[in-house]
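Check my protein:
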Amino acid sequence: MMEARFMENNQSHRQNLKIQIREEYGRLVYTYTTHLKQAGLLTKQNERIKHWQIILSAISTGGFLSAVITSQITLTWISGIVSTALLVLNLYFKEFNLSDDIKEHRTTADALWVIRECYISLLTDFPVLKTEEIMQKRDELLSRTAEIYKAAPSTNPKSYSAAQKALKENEEQFFRTSEIDQMLPEHLREIKEPSQS
């Protein structure tokens, strides 16, 4: 009787462990994807700023050269205004180092990717591991994840929404069996094509 109750409690505990690990995996995938999306948004923002700097710099320089050549006061004014706009843009973004921010988000995503793969391995090995081993591996993963989160830069709601869309609608982090099969040699495919007669 006691042994049966122990076995039942152990099975219940293992099921609860599996649920917890799956939930941790889900949260981690969201965070990983959010950091990827944040890096992408910052990269686009950085590119836009650089393009505007080039455009404003070209207009400013071209306007001054034209003003000197043609002696037109209007071109001098336009060049001055564009130069001031360029100066304001440069000063405003001098405080932000988007390249470093992008690098930090990518570094965080890379570190989380490794943890994500460890969670997948743990879930794969779950049936053959002892409960104590599962708990130990879970605790190690939680600890490693906490260390990454401590050093991680903040994300914003826009990147979280982009991650949500990527995961729920586009299934960005997942493959269907048929998609994986297309990437593997024929002898390693799960879905066998009917033989042509």
Q: What stands out?
A: The longest helix spans residues 2-70.
